[in-house]
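Provenance

Sequences were taken from public entries as deposited. Structures were produced by running a predictor on each sequence independently, with no templates supplied. The record for MA2C1 mannosidase from Baryphthengus martii is shown for reference.
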Amino acid sequence: AGSFQDAGVIQRAYNLNFPLHVVRTSSAQCPAWSAFSVSSPAVVLETLKQASPWGRSGEGRWAEDRPEAVVVRLYEAHGSTVIAWLQTSLPVKEAMLCDFLERPTAQGRLPLEQQGVRLSFTPFRVLSVLLVLRH
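Predicted structure for MA2C1 mannosidase:
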């Protein structure tokens, strides 16, 4: 009933196509933990990957000098304009928007706030965020 946004179609499709697999390693109880979360159900965290070594074209390799860099790719899935907070339990030292070749964009660094990293989405926009982790 209702719209596809209200029905949670995007999340249910991911659950169907990418089910979680349980791997038992020991009988010890582990606390619940999540490396990343996004504050809006309209925003999907699609990809998490180590930054590519070809993060800069031509004049050297940006990410090759920073093996602690990861890229998080997110998109707005509901056709709305929304502000979302990307939160992580990882020790982030620096965050910046980057292009699809993982080169930092002219918009520069994103402030690290208590709520996480603030991201602004227009309908169906894809954003890539480069996170540099502390050692």
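Residues 33-133 form a domain with the Immunoglobulin-like fold (CATH 2.60.40.2220).
The first strand starts at residue 36 and ends at 38.
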